[in-house]
Amino acid sequence: MLPWELINSKLEINQLAESARLSAFKDNRFNKKRDEKKVLKEIEFLNLKEFENISFEETAQICEGVELARRLVAAPPNSLTPQEMSIQASQIAKDHGLEVKILEAKDCEDLGMGAYLAVAKGSDLDPKFIHLTLKSEGPIKEKIALVGKGLTFDSGGYNLKVGASQIEMMKYDMGGSAAVLGAAKALGAIKPKGLEIHFIVASCENMINGSAVHPGDVVKASNGKTIEINNTDAEGRLTLADALTYASNLKPDAIIDLATLTGAIVVALGNDVAGFWSNNDNLANDLKAASSQSGEELWQMPLQKSYKEGLKSHIADMKNTGPRAGGSITAALFLEEFFDKEIKWAHIDIAGTCWTDKNKGINPSGATGFGVKTLVQWIKNK
Ligand SMILES: [Zn+2]
Question: Structure pTM?
Answer without folding.
Answer: 0.95
